[in-house]
């Protein structure tokens, strides 16, 4: 098949996976779940075939006529370059593992059909983002991703907290999307089109080149919202109200990295000043996420703040291949962590007692013996997140560090050196909070007195298979035969088949990052039993004080003004119109209609009089003729 057919099949298959379960309904939950797995598996096959077909023919561009407006023709198309092919396989691969996991995790939910349908809608939207070659079309799919996220976060709409979380995610993302849309408008003004390939051309002679950095930063606003970057990161922890598999797919491996994908597409728009600004936003986000993760007691919220931190690392990489490398490794180990957390929650929920918080790590402990597969997978993925040698996170984190250090040397930028310093702090904190989390969940003694630990057991293959596969993919051996050598990872040659020279690497960075990560592990171990009984203030309070309350107060004052002033003015104008209408109606009735009615009435009277004369009696006719003659004589006399 031709590439264009593959692309259309890849895009439309998940859309069918959304429509079919909704049509099947609640009575066919099981069939709907397996059907979506089949569609996603088929889509994964299509994606792999497209990858193999384009493996030695990179950067293909498929373009189609859209419409003609005046003399200008508009097109839309698809990109099948290395980045697109990688994202296609990644999204479908994580999606099918999440759907398999959900077979058991969501088995008892009566609305499972709706859940799997929404998942397929999300996959459709995400694939649209990575396939399109045009910012306009990307924005349409961008909003569909936001809608899908809203539906999945608020899936359990009976819970007020889930409803609030879904609304918060939707509205906060709209803030970033406004900037994204303005950036698209500005790109169209500068270049006359919104094609992604135009952004990678030489535009130094463009008369509006001075506006290019502004356009790039406006587009970056979309990344700030969708990828939960400071200051729009507050929606992601609340999004954990959705089902745990949703967190693994959307809020760890795909949706939150859509912004990183966007930065990878638009990074040619950034000069050194804009790059420092973008990296600074990523740095602040990384540190905030790491600090907040330390103080969490909810197993999913710890991972949520960890996601914020890790996506911040990708943003620091400025959309380069190093960023995409960490996007790939993060997808594996973070999806593995979320699904493993789901395995723990599922096991506790099915322990025979539902009257406790199954996500509170303070009520866990000692679970490694009851959940051995989950423990091993959680441990491996945690080591990858901490960036320790032999694991995937070590390779990708050091690749970002090496890129930053090379850029700092090249530009002699003090700001970049400062960011590198904070990067090491982030590595320390990541290793620290992950060590504490692993200990709180799996080591020590079981701390929940309401549950017999003997009743806790591992899930079926539907749960253990996805997390085991993701744990394996979190090891460094998957990317290179020597997991201590990031230079020879296959990823670099896949992204750039013409790569001749090895990727530059500063070995002292690897040594230093490893030492700092080990220090974080040691601190986490020594402080493993330390519990924080206070909550760190979040930006939610600041947003509430600076934005939400003032907006609500302003809206309340507008409502009062509308009711007391505008409504009264409108009512007064309406009353005046009613009075005027009554006057017009009277004038119409009395004058306009009155004159012809009066003339008609007079004519009627005269008619009746004249008819009375026509009685048929001769004497009356003679008398009337005589009276007429007298009248004529009198007229003649008085006329002279």
From TrEMBL:
Keywords (A to Z) from UniProt: Membrane, Transmembrane, Transmembrane helix
Bilayer-crossing regions: 6-24, 31-53, 73-101, 113-131, 137-157, 169-191, 211-232, 244-264, 276-295, 302-325, 331-350, 371-395, 415-442, 463-481, 508-527, 569-587, 618-638
Pfam families cross-referenced by the UniProt entry: Proton_antipo_M (PF00361), Proton_antipo_N (PF00662)
Domain NADH:quinone oxidoreductase/Mrp antiporter transmembrane: 133-408
Location within or outside the cell: Endomembrane system; Membrane
Domain NADH-Ubiquinone oxidoreductase (complex I) chain 5 N-terminal intervals: 66-115
UniProt topology in membrane: Multi-pass membrane protein
InterPro entries named among the record's database cross-references: NADHpl_OxRdtase_5_subgr (IPR018393), ND/Mrp_TM (IPR001750), NU5C-like (IPR003945), Proton_antipo_N (IPR001516)
Principal location class: membrane
Superkingdom of this protein's organism: Bacteria
Protein name: NADH-quinone oxidoreductase subunit L
